[in-house]
Amino acid sequence: MTFFNPTEPILRPKQYALDYQDRQGLLHVQLKIKNKTLVSSIYTRIDQVFGLWGLISAAIFINAQFTPISWVTQAIVWSVLTVGGTLVTIGLTHFWVAVERLHWVLYVWVILMLVGVAITDLGIFLGWGQVLMHLSHLWLGLCAIGYFCTGIGMRSRAFIISGIIHSLGIVSLSYVVGWQFLVTGLIMAANLFVLAETQWDMRLPIESYGLLTEKQKQFNREQQKLRQATC
To answer: Where are the beta strands (DSSP E) in 102-149?
Structure first.
């Protein structure tokens, strides 16, 4: 038995035959002009979290690159955005991670974000030069750890690759001196937006969904058959 699900492509267009836990809080975005549909896509709560963090990452690092705001002010704004995003993440994902038995993955991300905020703020308020010089390395490294843990927990090659991309991003920083914040923001945001807009691979559904009723479990089995029929 392989660790990853070999029948699933790493990334593919979004599927509409979603399991019960994926349909909770589902957001359907549609843009029409007269009778012509320009944009139509669905976003699960997990997708919404990716989109949220993509915006937060872009806002933090692009502003750090281009705006002449003081480090202290930026630290306060970064902290508020990161902690706020973490709380929203917990609220949006708690049911999904409970059903999928992935609480530990959520805990890892929460710890990583809080550690990142703490080190960043201490570096700025206490004037730790080495921290200030390596903020991009710090955040890319924390995200790489988070993606590797997520990839292991979900048995997903897409998230393992995301961890590799962020690790390579750390290496690339030495070649973009002066543009490190911009490059960091682009790597983090682009990766998150790709995950939000696509269907990524994951382990096969588990049958022992303790939080679901028998009717909901049967619904998931039928949805799985529909997904397999469209592969």
So the answer is: none
Of 114, 133, 111, 132, whose CA–CA distance to 123 is shortest? 132
Tell how strand 199-200 and strand 36-43 pair up. unpaired
Rounded CA separation 208/98 (Å): 12
Each residue of 137-155: pLDDT tens digit? 999 999 999 999 999 999 9
Q: CA-CA distance, 42 to 25, in Å (whole number)?
A: 11
* Among the listed residues 219, 214, 190, the one whose alpha carbon sits nearest the alpha carbon of residue 62: 190
205 Cβ contact partners less than 8 Å away, ≥ 6 residues apart: 19, 220, 224
User: Helix, strand or coil for residue 43?
Assistant: strand
Quick: pLDDT tens for 154-199. Answer: 999 999 999 999 999 999 999 999 999 999 999 999 999 999 999 9
Q: What is the dihedral of CA 130, 189, 9, 227, to 10 degrees?
A: 130
Q: Evaluate whether 2 touches 155 at the Cβ level (below 8 Å).
A: no
Give this prediction's pTM.
0.93
